[in-house]
Amino acid sequence: MDNDYYVCTGCALLCDDIGVEIEGGKLTKVHTACRKGVAFIKGCRHPLDSTVKGERTDVDLAVKEAASILKNAENPLIFGHANSSSGAQKIAIGIARRTNGYIDDTSSFCHGPTVEAIIESKLKTCTLDDVRHKADVLIFWGSDPANSHPRHMSRYSYFPRGKERQRGWEEDRTAITIDVRKSDTAEICGKNGLYQIPVKGDTEFMEALTSALSGKVPKTSYDFDKKRLLELAGILKKAKFGVIFAGLGMIYSLEDFEPLYRFMDKLNSVSSFHLIPMAGHYNMRGFNENLFKETGYINRVKFNGAEVLHGPEYSVVEALRKKEVDAALVIGADPLSSLPRSIVRYLEEIPLITIDPCQTLTSTKADVTIPCALVGVESGGAAIRMDGVEVELKPMVETDRLSDEDVMKRIMEEL
Amino acid sequence: MGFGQFLSSPEVKLRIVTYRDAFQDAAKVESLFGEEYERLSATILLDAKDITKLSIKENDTLILKNKSGSIVVKAVESGYEQPHPGTAYMVNSPWSNVLVPEEAGGTGVPAFKDFEVVASNSKGAKVTGIKDIV
């Protein structure tokens, strides 16, 4: 076995304890990673070819064609980035600026508002290492790490012993799930660990908990058991280091973040609570931080000369729905898989470029496809974990394919 | 063609909630175009009462439709302890995304995890394939 440890880029946990076995330059075994991680590191069965209009070609020609599409477009969209290295993301921002384009990533319809609130210090947060060493009360709210981040509970949040949590999970940690169904994570949280609420019932539950923390009788229109709500408020008050792992179940249910801010403020007036967004893709947070440094916004940007425009109208969803872009470059994402079919159908009407290690639904409709190395396996770089910690990535095996950063660099040079 | 082809199928309105599944995610990474990914994605988890209302048996296929589109998926009983008639669960996938409404109220965030469909017996139609979706 290779004596080095590597980072898994299968999700935003970026587990850095991965062992691999390599024979004849090929990866044969992966140790320590979860089911998803092993599948990701071993790679897909359908690698992407370099093509222009469906015909195989060399990468140089595909890069030239991609640059030509972007040059000829008035309003190109540069979208994806959540599965891209930070280096590729920074060049993508440069390409969007150079072409007066729209730039957006998957956080636009995912954890964008949560990351934005954290970057702007509106929500108190902590690192996953803090969680491992200190956290005693864990709330999985609308999140199901047993499926979305399979090593979350074993490596960071529930099961490990940490510096201040030496007695093990049975005595040292309390795990709670607030969800609309009994998820696999709720099963792990035990008999009384699930607080099952109706769909879209999150805001009311949050407000009822805020009332309970203030010593008032908690009420919900769906008559949630007041005794259980008061018991939960009691657990939260006694927490020495509490963490809420916010999932999309919670985020999508909130009309706005005011109830969450009120709840966190109240929690932090009686105990100490932090929030970590359960970002899915390995470097979504990296894109948010990189774009924020460049523009002051985390996503949904349109460059217009020196001006930077921002708002929901510049989101990938609204830009495609209103047919306001006239070409698209997709890297590190598969919008034909992840967005409503009725919205992404428009991508088939405009010149489309896909850069990815694997064939995707989007690549099947692309005019230009450019393969790149699988970041963290075939190429290195850097990424930012779901908790904001930067992690260095190094390649496990060699490849002839260009890194995603190099592909973007080549396109930028052609521009 | 059996006599059942001429009988109208009961239609049931369902609220769909989507979720994540580690095994389906792994199957996607291995092969987006593979049978395993289709098997784990094109499935709907139903309450036992809704299975009865729809006059189907477990593992029969259902047509799900709304203004956004229509797909055929396999029906499975959820097995959740808490009854959930009228609410069904689907793993997030290109199949569920066929049914997610386009209108996002100007927010840029479609209702991925909460939308309505009308379900009916597909009378033996095959599950929608990934290539039929695109």
UniProtKB/TrEMBL annotation, chain A:
GO BP of this protein: methanogenesis; respiratory electron transport chain
Keywords assigned by UniProt, alphabetized: Oxidoreductase
UniProt key word Phosphoprotein: no
Organism: Methanolobus halotolerans
Keyword Lipoprotein found: no
Name of the molecule in the record: Formylmethanofuran dehydrogenase subunit B
Cellular component GO terms held in the UniProt record: membrane
GO molecular function terms attached to this record: formylmethanofuran dehydrogenase activity; NADH dehydrogenase activity
UniProtKB/TrEMBL annotation, chain B:
GO function term, MF aspect, one: oxidoreductase activity
UniProt cross-references to Pfam families, sorted A to Z: Molydop_binding
InterPro entries xref list: Asp_de-COase-like_dom_sf, MoPterin_dinucl-bd_dom
Domain Molybdopterin dinucleotide-binding, residue spans: 14-114
Superkingdom of this protein's organism: Archaea
SUPFAM superfamilies xref list: ADC-like
Descriptive protein name: Formylmethanofuran dehydrogenase
